[in-house]
Amino acid sequence: MSLDVHAQIDRGNFELDVSLDVAAGEVLAVLGPNGSGKSTLLRAIAGLLALDGGRIALDGELLDDPTANIFVQPEQRSVGMVFQDYLLFPHLDAVENVAFGLRARGTSKAVARAGAEEWLERFGLRELRSSRPGELSGGQAQRVALARALISEPRVLLLDEPLAALDAGARTDVRRDLRRYLANFGGARVLVTHDPIDAYALADRVAVVEHGRVVQVGTLAAVTAHPRSRFVADMLGVNLVSGIVTGQVLETADGAHIVVTDAQPGPSFAAIRPQAITIARDPSSSSARNSWPCVVGDIDRLGERVRVTLHGQLPMIAEVTVGAVELLGLRQGESVVASVKATDIRTYPV
Amino acid sequence: MIVRRGRTQQTPLPVPAVILAVVAILFFALPFAGLLWRTPWGSLVDVLGQRSVHQALWLSVRTSLMATAISVVFGVPLAWLLATVTFPGRGFVRALCLLSVVLPPVVGGVALFFSFGRRGLFGQFLDQWFGFRLPFTTWGVVVAQTFVAMPFLVITVEAALRQLDPRFGDAARTLGASRWYAFRRVTVPAIRPALVAGAVLAWARALGEFGATITFAGNFPGTTQTMPLATYLALETNPTEALILSLIMIVVSFAVLVGLRDRWFGAARQALQQ
Questions:
Q1: CB contact under 8 A, B175 and A100
Q2: Side-chain-side CA neighbours of residue A140 (13 Å)
Q3: How far apart are CA B213 and CA B147, in angstroms?
Q4: A-chain residues near B181 (CB < 8 A)
Q5: Widest CA span of chain A, in angstroms?
Q6: pLDDT (tens digit, 9 = 90+) per residue, B225-251?
Q7: CA dihedral A315, A320, A323, A324 (to 10 degrees)
Q8: Inter-axis angle of helices B15-38 and B239-260, to 10 degrees?
Q9: Cβ separation of B190 and A90 shorter than 8 Å?
Q10: Which residues of A216-239 are buried (b: 16+ CB within 10 A; e: fewer)?
Q11: How far is CA B82 from its chain centroid?
Q12: Structural domains for chain A
């Protein structure tokens, strides 16, 4: 089971040409800035937009192929979609919204309602079943939208910027819930986002899109460690460390300690931008609360900047200038000290 | 000492505008006063009991509701077409469909007569092939009323459809809904306030229709003589009856306006705020 996409869309001033494949049970994050063509890609997979070239196939069955003159209508595709602002039908309550997909496919009202109640229950929304979309919080609306998309058991689930419509406070909780609910879905999942944190938290692989083209695709670890362009480095260039926060300290599984600020206790991610890491020859007195010994690995030059892979108890990617590398005379295999200010570390509860 | 005026200090109202507005209010109020003043309340029951009055009232109710129903059935898809489908000559088609709003109703009646009349361009075939004649029949009344009433529904519904986020339809289709199912279950409920408002406007226009009806359908008691026609004719022969017929129409119209006030205006306001 897999989704196989080669989407070519020409909209005059904008050209999309993207190839992707997603296996069943896999989450692919399509990461790119606004206007890079991510949402257009999702609309094409859903069948809301016809391809100009290329093809889309699901488990070997063609959904869209302009050369063969094949176009399967969106309602005939086994593709569910969660829209950025959820688009719950305002005149229907939560149960009716979730039941919509079954009703549209001809299931009787009673059976569809019973199915919808079951899905709402599964998503912890039982007491909200009679609520109208206007009465739901962002996170609740998203879960209703997710239940609505999943009730007809699609083979592919598309999520368009699932966290962008939420305020920063709600985003953390919703991201955690979303991860849990997505894990129970067996089909292929494609997630579109402009936030690398979403990709880290939710996806197995990432495809970075720029100006309608995939510029790099691979596992998160591989793409983060070796971005092949300045753009990808900026887009995905975040060191992510997971561990458990107690007080002001995050402890990793390997036993490394990182001092953080404003973190909630419990399992957490810490995101550290490579640009925030400084490299020194010796441990010296500085205001940075975190410093740790490491060994220099790969040194990749990207224009005026250099990405330095640091091995050790706390593996990191640091980004420094060419001048700094020359000044320190950095070479592979040498021991250095890396440091970062606690205030430069963002934390996210898992 | 500070004199409180009950409300916070306001800038003085521009006197000329207030005077003109009051004149306008009187202009609307005085005709009703005149009508009520001359109404022969004593003979009210007598006139209401007349068969001709019953006939005209019943005919008006039937035909105007029929015209409203036809306007909804054909007008909503027409509004949808004009609002969402781009096709060459759309502006021209819209102008054509809305022409009867600005056209003198008598001209509309004449046009109907020469197209759907017995000798008309299309009417002759209706007569020859089906033996079906529109002019001077109750169906003729319905056609005349629909002709002038439907544009009000189309304008209102089209405006609502234009404001509707088309992505709700997209969402419905990704959930397995055909275009038609999405239209019925998602689009129509979303525009319901506008649909109700448009239907009421169309109904009011159909109820008051005079010129096109008398030109195309004539003036036969029981078949084509609606309330406005009966009122106009009664004014020449029996002014008392004309007064009472007018009163009935005012009461009916006013009752509908008041009855729908919350449902209609309230819903429309909600729709605008969303």
A1: yes
A2: 18
A3: 10
A4: 104
A5: 74
A6: 999 998 998 888 888 888 888 888 888
A7: -50
A8: 130
A9: yes
A10: bbeebeebbbbbeeebbbbbbbbb
A11: 20
A12: 2-236 (3.40.50.300), 239-349 (2.40.50.100)
Q: Which of A269, A228, A225, A227 is nearest to A245 (CA)?
A: A269
ipTM comes to 0.76
Tally of CA atoms within 13 A in the half-sphere of A51 that contains its CB: 28
Tell whether the torsion through CA atoms of B184, B188, B192 and B198 is positive or negative: negative
- 10 Å Cβ neighbour count for A264? 11
Closest Cα to residue A5, out of A16, A20, A15, A17? A20
Q: Which of A253, A273, A263 is nearest to A316 (CA)?
A: A273
Q: Does the beta-carbon distance from B174 to A103 stay under 8 Å?
A: no
Give the pTM: 0.73
- Cβ of residue B262 closer than 8 Å to a chain A Cβ: no
Tokens of B38: 């001359």
Mark the ranges of chain B whose per-residue pLDDT is less than 70: 1-10, 261-274
- For B176, which of A87, A90, A104 is closest by C-beta distance? A104
- For residue A14, the one-letter residue type is F
Most B CBs within 10 Å, among A43, A75, A152, to test the B interface: A75
β-pairing verdict for A27-31 and A205-210: parallel
> A10: which strand partners?
A15
Q: Which of A79, A103, A105 sits opposite B174 (nearest CB)?
A: A79
Matching residue, tokens 């108890």 = A313
DSSP code for A294: E
What distance in Å separates residue A176's CA from the closest CA in chain B? Answer: 25
| Residue among A195, A198, A228 nearest A213 (CA) | A228
* Chain position carrying tokens 């500070």: B2
What pLDDT, in 10s, does the model give residues B189-211?
989 888 998 998 899 999 999 99
Asked if B143 and B122 count as a contact pair (C-beta separation under 8 A), the reply is no
Residue-range domains of chain B with CATH: 45-273 (1.10.3720.10)
pLDDT in single tens digits along all 350 residues of chain A: 689 999 999 988 889 999 999 998 899 999 988 888 888 999 999 999 999 999 999 998 999 999 999 999 999 999 999 998 899 999 899 999 999 999 999 899 999 999 999 999 988 888 998 999 989 988 899 999 999 999 989 999 999 998 887 877 777 778 888 888 888 888 899 999 988 878 878 888 999 998 889 989 998 878 877 777 777 777 777 787 888 998 889 998 888 888 888 888 888 878 888 888 989 887 766 667 888 889 998 888 877 888 888 988 888 889 888 888 888 888 888 999 999 988 888 887 76
User: A194, A195, A193, A191: which is closest to A204 by C-alpha?
Assistant: A191
